[in-house]
């Protein structure tokens, strides 16, 4: 006899997250981006002058991994380090080419957002309400 399925918000959210992460990865792949690279570029754009240490902290990766990723971005012309010399703090910025890539990626994210909203309106409403509550709490703490 089959066991009755028990609802778990944790497992359900993780499952939905993995499904949509795979969809995002597929959408970003033609641009040469992964979900992690998209996030790293977004952090650099969102905080011009960000250090490698702060980038690593926000991305939950090691500083060494941040250096490796940024070196690849710089080689591709997507990021520049205004103070790139030994012994000085870095000041990372997204280049015009990086901005164009992020705009293309953002359009793909918007398409996925629209699809998710159409397919799962209740989930999107719940996520929006939780996001808004989190932002309000952060603003008053």
Automatic annotation (TrEMBL):
Entries under Gene3D superfamilies matching the protein: Winged helix-like DNA-binding domain superfamily/Winged helix DNA-binding domain
Organism superkingdom: Bacteria
Domain HTH marR-type: 31-80
InterPro entries: HTH_MarR-typ (IPR000835), WH-like_DNA-bd_sf (IPR036388), WH_DNA-bd_sf (IPR036390)
An annotated Gene Ontology molecular function: DNA-binding transcription factor activity
Pfam short name (any one): MarR_2
The protein, known as: MarR family transcriptional regulator
Species for this entry: Cellulomonas cellasea
